[in-house]
Amino acid sequence: MKLMFISDIHGISTNLKKIKTKFEEFQCDKLVVLGDLYYIGPRNKMIEGYNIKEVQDFLESMKDKLLCMKGNCDSEVDMMVSSFPIMKDLSLIMTENHDIYITHGHIYNESNWMQENSILVYGHFHIPFIKKIETNYYINPGSISLPKNGNRPSYLIYDENKMSIYDIDDNLLAEEILN
């Protein structure tokens, strides 16, 4: 199973065409969106590319291959107007080789996690990383729209036993072979 993870779209459609192209090039089975779909938030200034309708159209076009988590900026109304399920808090993807826990990251993250020998993939912080701490992997694809700390927009690919984070220009940022 091949998975693509993106997070923190925040209503900005700028990079979604490239994501769809990469999804097809990597021949991914599922697109996992880790929350914060439509709303830009009160701390972010309005930027070019903010287009909730285009974001919704993109997600709708992927709905048969979409797994979507609710972020801290997503509302009940967002869930009601979307024709695909948006899961709250925590979910589990079972692949042939790994169980991958997914969440937005504002509740569960490396500072608040209880499951040993696990893989937790989350967004929220807008910073891409792969960390192994004791028996756990903590993985963040970064933000596809509003990256922080000088990072570029980024996404994550899971392929069998490997997690790879790429920026929007296809530069490999981090990679880890999972045991």
Task: Provide keyphrases for this structure.
6-stranded mixed β-sheet; globular; 11 strands
At a glance:
With 179 residues, this protein is α/β, with parallel strands linked by helices. The chain has one domain: Metallo-dependent phosphatases (Purple Acid Phosphatase, chain A, domain 2), CATH 3.60.21.10.
Description:
With 179 residues, this protein is of the alpha/beta class. The chain has one domain: Purple Acid Phosphatase, chain A, domain 2, CATH 3.60.21.10. 15% of the residues lie in helices and 31% in strands. It has three helices and eleven strands. The chain has a six-stranded mixed beta sheet, with no helix packed on it. Strands 4-5-6-8-7 form a five-stranded mixed beta sheet, with no helix packed on it. A hairpin with a 4-residue loop joins strand 10 and strand 11. It is globular. The two termini are 16 Å apart.
List the helices and strands and how they pair.
Layout: E1 2-6, H1 16-25, E2 30-33, H2 52-61, E3 66-68, H3 76-81, E4 90-94, E5 99-103, E6 119-122, E7 128-133, E8 136-141, E9 154-159, E10 162-167, E11 172-177
Parallel strand pairs: 1-2, 2-3, 5-6, 6-8
Antiparallel strand pairs: 1-9, 4-5, 7-8, 9-10, 10-11
Q: Shape, please?
A: globular
Number of helices: 3
Mean pLDDT: 95
CATH topology name: Purple Acid Phosphatase, chain A, domain 2
Cα-atom Rg, whole angstroms?
Answer: 15 Å
In total, the number of strands is 11
Alpha-carbon distance between the two ends: 16 Å
- Overall structural class, as computed from helix and strand content, comes to alpha/beta
User: Percent helix among the residues?
Assistant: 10-25%
Number of domains: 1
H and E order:
EHEHEHEEEEEEEE
CATH level-four homologous superfamily name? Metallo-dependent phosphatases
Strand order of the largest sheet: 3-2-1-9-10-11
